[in-house]
Amino acid sequence: MASSKGSAKKSTKSSGSAAGLPAYTVPSLTLDEGAKTAQILQTRLHALIDLALTLKHIHWNVIGPHFIAVHEMIDPQVDAVQAMVDETAERIATLGSVPLGTPGAIVASRTWDDYSIGRASTIAHLGALDEVYRGFITDHREAATATEELDDVTNDMLIGQLASLEQFHWFVRAHLESTSGELSTADARSEKSAARSAEADAKGRA
């Protein structure tokens, strides 16, 4: 039997659709809550697609003595992030919204520049990737926080993704850390400066 709360949702549905909100969302969320959650996820979807492509670019462009180790470390991260892309897009659709994954949509909405390192040493790419993961994880945590009061399922999904992303970041940082626990990229504030710091530190240890 439908509760009074459920009846209220039906009322929100008919008026919300006219206001440009999705025609439906998951039970227990209002249309506005569903749309707001989907919009948060849409931003993360674009970032995840970009991250998967960036990781593949790094996989193709690392060179140097540790090539094979880093080359093979990156590909499982690509696969995992691509799975997150699919998971996130399907959650947006489940919420009643339209997941946008076209190149034009990503370029139009993104607030970040393309990855800035081309063919370079493994340590340079790992330094830059440390900066990429640092920013990405910070934004992903903000998205998780923003969904805490909106939707438990979406929040749980984002937290699960964060667990994997933070582990991948740890894999990267293990190459940049000294025995005393200091990161060669600690003071870097851009991909290029992180790459330079990582290379300089590696040369200093050689």
Explain what the structure shows:
It comes from Flavimobilis soli. GO terms for molecular function: DNA binding; ferric iron binding; oxidoreductase activity, acting on metal ions. Residues 188-206 have a biased composition (Basic and acidic residues). The protein has 206 residues and is an all-alpha fold. The protein has one domain (26-205): Up-down Bundle (Ferritin), CATH 1.20.1260. The protein has 7 helices and 2 strands; from the N terminus they run H-H-E-H-H-E-H-H-H. A two-stranded parallel sheet has the order 1-2. The longest helix has 31 residues, at 31-61. The protein is elongated and about 60 Å long. It starts with a helix and ends with a helix. Mean pLDDT is 91; it is low at 1-18.
Draw up the topology in text.
Elements: H1 4-18, H2 31-61, E1 62-63, H3 67-94, H4 103-109, E2 120-121, H5 122-146, H6 152-173, H7 191-205
Parallel strand pairs: 1-2
Helix pairs in contact: 2-3, 2-5, 3-6, 5-6, 5-7
Protein name: Starvation-inducible DNA-binding protein
Domain Ferritin/DPS: 39-178
InterPro entries: DPS_DNA-bd, DPS_DNA-bd_CS, Ferritin-like, Ferritin-like_SF, Ferritin_DPS_dom
